[in-house]
Amino acid sequence: MKFTLKDYQDDAVAQVLDRFKTSHRRWHEENEKNAFSLTATTGAGKTVMAAAVFEALFFGSDDYEFEADPGAVVIWFSDDPSLNEQSRWRLNEASDKLTVSNLVNVTNTLSREAFEPGKVYFLNTQKLSKNSLLVRGHDADDPALETAGGQMIMPDMRSHTIWDTIQNTIEDPDLTLYLVLDEAHRGMLEGPRRGDSKPSIVKQLINGTGSVPSIPIVWGISATVERFNNAIEGMENRTKLANVVVNSKLVQDSGLLKDTINLDVPDETGNFSTVLLRRGTEKLREISEAWEEYAKHQDDADTVKPLMVLQVPNSPNHTEIGTWLETIFEAWPDLPTDSVYNVFGEHKTETLGAYIAPYISPERVQESTWVRILVAKDAISTGWDCPRAEVMVSFRAASDKTHITQLLGRMVRTPLARRIPGNEVLNSVDCLLPHFNKKSVEAVVTSLTTDEEAGEELPGRRVLINPREMKPNPAIPQEVWDKLASLPSQTLPKKQSRPVKRLTALAHELAADGLLPDAGKIAHGKLHKVLDGAQVTYADEIKVARESVLKVEGKTVKADVGTKAMTFDDFVEDADFAVIEDAYKRAGRALTPDVSKTYSEYLAGKSQDNHDLEEALIDAHTVVAALGMVPVIKEHLESQAEKLANEWLTEHRVAIKSLSDERQDVYREIREMSADPMDVEVAEPRARLQPITARNPDGTKFDLPRYEKHLLCDEDKRFPELFGSDWEGKVLLAELQREGSVGWYRNPGRASQESLGVAYEESSETKIMRPDFVFFARLPNGKIVADLVDPHGYHLADALSKLKGLAAYAEKQGTHFRRIEAVAKTGTGYRVLDLTETSTRQAVTEASSAEALYDSDAAHDYLT
User: Fold this and answer.
1) In the prediction, which pLDDT does 550 show?
2) How many CB atoms neighbour CB 244 within 10 A?
């Protein structure tokens, strides 16, 4: 793969391959047909995951311990040719093994007896319609068929229809046909369509039609797969396997999706179309300038060219659209007038008032950076995405909230496939709704913050109505910013950590950035020494393993025909080259193929019998095979690889921080590949979007309270915030009144580089908590100190787990803070646990109840 998969993607790929392995075995051994689905929120990278699956399916994978299926054939099916073309391009972009020859767009010229293994064939509904040349001739009653001497002649003199090809592929015992349904919820409605006696084309494909049997293995992919799942469960002769479900929170935390969606709506009733359109244009201009400024400070970052989506009704007035465009160009005169394009279903150039808008295919918009204003209806609301679409002005009616929500769902990908550290403006998308009222907006907000499949809140994403940008507070001294940037944050460990691969990846990046020349050779040299030492330490175990590699044991069965008696005689034979190589490949899965290869070459080079290098290499492969069969050696090698990687990350920490954000993000991902929570520094926040108003339950609006001394502020040097409880505000005010108080920081409650995270364990799973406040004070000697204060109710189920995580963090990182405190409101007032005290940490470690802790002598009165 060209891309390093996110942890959740890695896990999903492993699960899909496990389903494929099960389905393949059941089909060929028991003639059983299987189906399952993968569901992940929009923007999770489903095509990237599919690319990793296809690589393993066609070529095998040591990472997933998956043997290649030499007879694998994949049909990728959707109901949209442009969506297929976009998927085909993305698969090729993500994979370094899938080439254009592996990714075949099925055209009307295809005429094969059976599909060729090792390829993905892209089909869509239109190509299987009854008028398609690929299909005509499959139905014997087709009036278009000609006959010659009683023999039917199919269109274009083809020998096979697409249905013949599918049937022959399924019936070939050496082939295995996998059907992948993109946007799998489509075409799954119960029963045939009105006026049509046949089921939908996709159901014919799954269940078979006429003499064509049903496809043995079906994988449905969609953000909403409920309809697909229900359809599969209602089908006969097909087993539904457990679905693969990607956690929406992990997707949001990954940085692939924008964190904030800003909705601008009128505060009162009236026609505010022109006002909000000008505001949207100003937002487009500002975000364009912000991206240009960001690119200037990043040596190797691409300059993002944001565009505005101008969403119009399905029956638009072209003259009125021309008036809207005129407003845009009046608000931003430097915007080129030839930057307007349309994605209407008519697929033609449109004249919109005084402006010409050529048609462009939705899948081409992202790379067509000259497109700055995209006029759209609702045809691109599903399957299409454009990360650089950062502003939308919708002139659709308030009743069209579904279409607006769907289109916004296509705009949530981050343009650079990563979160921009410290800048919420560049991690957001703006939507202006001139025709929407409060009730309609609330429906949009609910939809955008809800995982439809799970039916629960989508954590980590904010939808803000008429927010305001907060910028660095000029009253805050630089020492405070330096102190914030020095504070250690923690990251989630990687579930499927591969320390040797992590070290190899780190070595590659260090060498590429010139921070450690020949880092790869150095890393492998150190690992070779580890394996040399293991040969001495575990000599007895390796000897036994080596003998098992070199000897093949079995039994010979002898049967007496007369007496029908059987005897079993053991036999032992020397292993041949094929047996040794098979054991060597298995070792590669334990030690990684790269290390196995370089260590074998290292051993062969050391051999005294240099005149026969081939023999020396075979002997080296035997040694490596034996090493791989001793589990403790793998564990030792991985622990040393993890140790070396962490040492290098620490040693080059300052140099890495001097690199561009894009390069730093690469090292951040490598750091997070650790099997244990890793320490990372908090990024300096440069811009934050905050709501400035809220509504009471009765619908009346009120201004949020604004506080002084926050590191980020508005033009009045204040920071608006609405706390979840009244006592959080009391804690804030009490801390600001302390002697020497200089400033405070509202720690973001979602995953971002500018949020301080603390790892904790709950139900044997590592999670991240994000304490509410960091306060800064100046001591009498002039030194700036930081206090970590977290108001957290003890009544919550995770309260004790979080306290224990905070205590462990204080034990390790306490020297960075003056105080690390957890505050709770109790029946007698406010109580605090000071986790910088050894006795308090001990009490927390031994506690079985958070409430009891606050009532014990380990806690003290707060606000006194």
Assistant:
1) 75
2) 22
DSSP per-residue string spanning 33-66 = -EEEEEE--TTS-HHHHHHHHHHHHHH-BTTTTB
- Alpha helix positions (H), 716-786: 726-736
* DSSP codes, 658-671: TS-HHHHHHHHHHH
Q: How far apart are CA 651 and CA 634, in angstroms?
A: 26
Q: What angle do CA 692, 694, 697 make, to 5 degrees?
A: 175
Distance of alpha carbon 304 from alpha carbon 388, whole angstroms: 7
Please check the confidence at residue 328 and state whether its pLDDT lies above 90: yes
DSSP letter for each residue of 128-169: GSTTSTTTTTSSTT-TT-EEETTEEE-GGG-S--HHHHHHHH
Residue among 830, 835, 825 nearest 796 (CA): 825
- For residue 277, give the nearest of 229, 349, 329, 339 by alpha carbon: 329
Separation between Cα atoms, residue 486 and residue 484, nearest integer Å: 5
Select from 815, 812, 831 the least CA-distant residue to 823: 831
Which residues on neighbouring strands pair with residue 556, listed in sequence order?
569
> Each residue of 719-747: pLDDT tens digit?
999 887 788 899 999 999 999 999 999 99
Cβ distance 268 to 466 under 8 Å?
Answer: no
> Position of tokens 């022959």?
168
Q: Which of 114, 121, 235 is nearest to 173 (CA)?
A: 114
Query: Is the pLDDT score of 404 beyond 90?
Result: no
**For the residues 426-436, what does the mean pLDDT come to?**
90
Phi, then psi, of 778 in degrees rounded to 5: -105, 125
How buried is residue 536: exposed, middle or buried, by Cβ count under 10 Å (0-12/13-18/19+)? exposed
d(CA 643, CA 50): 33
Which pair of structure tokens corresponds to residue 295?
């690119």
Task: Give SS3 for 555.
Answer: strand
End-to-end Cα separation, the chain, in angstroms = 59
pLDDT of 249 over the 80 cut: yes
pLDDT the model gives residue 725: 79
| Sole residue written with tokens 């912000």 | 290
Instruction: Output the average pLDDT for the chain.
Output: 86
| Tokens encoding 774 | 């960091």
The residue assigned the tokens 């793998």 is 634
At 523 the three-state DSSP class reads helix
* Beta carbons of 803 and 850 less than 8 angstroms apart: yes
**351: which 2 tokens?**
């004249």
**Which of 847, 801, 803, 848 shows the shortest CA–CA distance to 824?**
803
pLDDT score, position 790: 94
More confident residue, 646 or 194: 646
User: What one-letter code names the amino acid at 655?
Assistant: A
CA 583/CA 567 separation, integer angstroms: 30
CA distance 165 to 145: 19
166, burial (CB in 10 Å: exposed 0-12, middle 13-18, buried 19+): buried
pLDDT at position 357 over 60:
yes
Q: What percent of the chain has pLDDT over 90?
A: 51
35, 219 Cβ separation under 8 angstroms: yes
Q: Which residues pair with 77 in a beta bridge?
A: 123, 181
pTM: 0.82
Handedness of CA 97, 102, 104, 109 (dihedral sign): positive
Q: What is the band of 570 on the pLDDT scale with cuts at 50, 70, 90?
A: very low
Structure tokens at 687: 């811009």
**What's residue 316's pLDDT?**
86
Residue identified by tokens 């001495």 is 536
Beta bridge partners of 826: 829
Q: Give the position of tokens 């505050």.
A: 823
The C-alpha angle 208, 209, 214, rounded to 5 degrees, equals: 10
Tens of pLDDT, residue by residue over 786-839, are 999 999 888 888 899 999 999 999 999 999 999 999 999 888 789 999 999 999
Instruction: Read off the pLDDT of residues 741-759 as tens digits, 9 standing for 90 and up.
Output: 999 999 998 888 899 999 9
C-beta separation of 717 from 709 below 8 A: no
Output the pLDDT for position 141.
Answer: 52
